[in-house]
Design goal:
- The protein has 115 residues and is mainly α.
- The protein folds into two domains: 72 residues, no CATH class; 35 residues.
- It has six helices and two strands.
- A two-stranded antiparallel sheet has the order 1-2.
- Helix 1 runs antiparallel to helix 3.
- The relative contact order is 0.10.
């Protein structure tokens, strides 16, 4: 295990096995709406052990990236898209509604000005 992960692993093993969760708020500035996200023991365990992580872990990481971009004055250079809006598109492209949403998303991302 990476040395930086030890405090997180200790916290997860000592406090989170009883069902405790870590709550993080994804602010309006990232997704266009406020969204509370909860990380449980399994989420932390998967992250620490470099396993496939949940959408909640990705959202919290996006919050961290947005904060770094804001600090460095680069927030206008990136578009963050909620992964819960993308994953159904990838999984079932036979559904006409899913294809339509995928087309809308692709069109939006093409229209984002490049800097």
């Amino acid at each position: 295990m990476n040395m930086e992960m030890r405090p997180l692993a200790y916290y997860a093993h000592s406090s989170m096995r009883q069902g405790n969760q870590i709550e993080a708020l994804i602010p309006y500035t990232i997704m266009g709406f406020d969204m509370p996200v909860f990380l449980g023991f399994d989420d932390i365990y998967e992250f620490i052990n470099l396993q496939e992580i949940s959408v909640n872990c990705i959202l919290v990481y996006m919050r961290y990236l947005e904060k770094l971009c804001r600090i460095n004055g680069q927030v206008e250079k990136f578009v963050l898209v909620c992964p819960t809006l993308i994953s159904p598109v990838r999984m079932d492209t036979e559904d006409a509604g899913m294809r339509e949403r995928a087309d809308i998303l692709v069109s939006f991302l093409r229209d984002v000005p490049k800097r």
